[in-house]
Amino acid sequence: MQYRQIIVLLLSLIAVVGAALMVIIWAGNDDNTATTPNPTTPPTITAAATTSTMATNVINPAPTTSTTTTTTTTTVPLDCTPEAATGATTVPGSTNPTLGRNSKITTAGLGKVFFGMSIAQAEKAAGTPMIPCAPVSSCYIIAPASAPDGISFVVKDGTIERVDIIAGPITTRSGVGIGTADDRIIELFGSKIERSVNDDSSVDLIFVPVDADDARFRVIFTIRDGVVDSFRSGRTPLVFDKAPCAA
Predict the structure, then answer these.
(1) Which of 22, 77, 197, 222 stands 20 to 30 A from 84 (CA)?
(2) pLDDT score of 119
(3) H or E element: which one contains 113?
(4) Which 8-state DSSP code applies to residue 61?
(5) Mean confidence (pLDDT) of the chain
(6) Which residue has the higher pLDDT, 1 or 203?
(7) Which of 161, 175, 45 shows the shortest CA–CA distance to 113?
(8) How far is CA 147 from the centre of its chain?
């Protein structure tokens, strides 16, 4: 009987030790499972952080710079014909256009449009809009929307400084206009005329005023084939430029 008790006791010890070993092995497996993340599944905290960042970007996107370009540049066909204008040919608050075939060129301007006027003042005086013939800048050319053919003004630093006549009925007070013979100009103005030969063989007959108030102004008649081909009046030195406002 004692021998059997010893065997039962040994078997019981073996069973207890085996059970203990199983418990230890299971505990180890549970710890490994808990601490080793699934390589294909990102940790929950990382996913939450990513979602939060995306939501922030959607609700409060990064600021962007919006550039608004304001320009006063107006481009119209270079022929400056009234048909190129999009508005009326008269200025609100003005009477009928004042620039007509009887308007005269002087050292002060053309008709009621005088050198030194702003565009707004010139439009009111002329009773018609002034159409830019080129992009508006510190120096550019304009033409009246309603007036005889061949008239253009040069605007320098915001004021009218010169008028050019290349066609039409406009003349000086002495009646000099397109087609007038050069001899007639010499006959009318005598010693007040200075002569200058241009590179293209045309000749400029330059009227030089004797009045001190007009000392900064000139009227220049360009002669081709013995007659006036074009003429201009304005303030010096701009009036001498063959191509005013050229770059």
Answers:
(1) 222
(2) 96
(3) strand 113-114
(4) P
(5) 77
(6) 203
(7) 161
(8) 28
Torsion angles phi and psi, residue 101, rounded to 5: -65, -20
> CA distances (Å), 118 to each of 35, 81, 127, 128, in order?
85, 21, 14, 14
The Cα–Cα gap between 74 and 161 comes to 20
Cβ atoms of 164 and 156 within 8 Å: the answer is no
128 CB neighbour count, 10 Å cutoff:
25
Instruction: Return all residues near 175 (Cβ < 8 A) that are at least 6 apart.
Output: none
Q: What is the pTM of this model?
A: 0.64
Closest-CA residue to 231 (of 60, 93, 104): 104
71 and 100 Cβ atoms separated by less than 8 Å:
no
How many other C-beta atoms are found inside a 10 Å radius of the C-beta of residue 134?
16
What average pLDDT does range 172-177 have in this prediction? Answer: 97
Q: Which residue has the tokens 């979602």?
A: 51
Of the pLDDT bands very low, low, confident and very high (cuts 50, 70, 90), residue 205 is very high
